[in-house]
Amino acid sequence: MTATVDVVTPPCASVPEVYLDERLHTPPSRTELSAADWESLTLKRASAHRQCAGCPLLVTCLYRAVVEVDVSGFAACTTEDDRAAIRRQLGIEIQQSSATPYGAARVGGGPVSHEAVMAARHAFPKDTCHQLAERLDCSTSTVKRHLRRAREQKLNPTSAPGATRAIPSVDAVLDCFDQLESSRFA
Ligand code: SF4
Fold first, then answer.
1. How many Å lie between the centroid of ligand 1 and the Cα of residue 128?
2. Helices 140-155 + 114-123 axis angle, to 10
3. Domain ranges of the chain
């Protein structure tokens, strides 16, 4: 007897080019782009959103990306900022080693640590995120993510490392997701 395994290939794996544009990770504001670039980004984001909305792994992917692993980029119909907003609403912070490869995409070398990003920000307070990323040899979105984490810890001390927190349910995450403008995006 031959056993068959039903393997689901999610759209992000079958059409990765839709997800690779770094502007989807932490989208720039409208004023930072020309009309043509804004239109192109809007279409790309709508396309990624449609792919995720039809993905059979959406709920699991969203829950993991919000609660378990601080992944980079667009995932489960959400940007990094969207997922950070959900975490703020839930009062959680991902306890993730800065040495893990997830959420710390880096060009060359190993993953850059939270401490390294904060030290660079302290040493070069007037640098843009792009300049800091060049100093650290990592992506701009990685720098933004670490700076955002520092801001969140300042705003919400219960999310600081070592603070006690409950693990949210899938329903709680979905409720927060439903409140996002991006949940209705496509
Ligand atoms: S929901 Fe998650 S697994 Fe599915 S396509 Fe989107 S990012 Fe990939």
1. 31
2. 90
3. 10-92+167-186, 104-164
Of the candidate ranges 33-37, 115-119, 165-169, the one whose mean pLDDT is the lowest: 165-169
Give distance in angstroms: CA of 116 to centre of ligand 1.
Answer: 30
Q: Which two tokens stand for residue 6?
A: 């039903």
Testing ligand 1's pocket by substitution, the residue of 8, 44, 51 carrying the most ligand atoms inside 8 A of its CB is 51
| Beta strands, E only, the chain | none
Distances (CA, A) of 3 to 6, 7, 31: 10, 13, 55
Element (H or E) spanning 173, and its range? helix 170-179
Q: What is the DSSP string of 12-66?
A: HHHSGGGT--GGGTSPPPGGGS-HHHHHHHHHHHHHHHHHHHT-TTHHHHHHIII
Q: Collapse the DSSP code of 59 into the 3-class scheme (helix H, G, I; strand E, B; otherwise coil) and give the result.
A: helix
Question: Taking the CA of residue 29 as centre, how many other CA atoms within 13 Å lie in the half-sphere pointing to its CB?
Answer: 2
pLDDT in tens, 139-173: 887 888 888 878 877 766 555 554 556 789 999 99
Question: Going by CA atoms, what residue is nearest to atom 8 of ligand 1?
Answer: 12
Structure tokens at 121: 């920000």
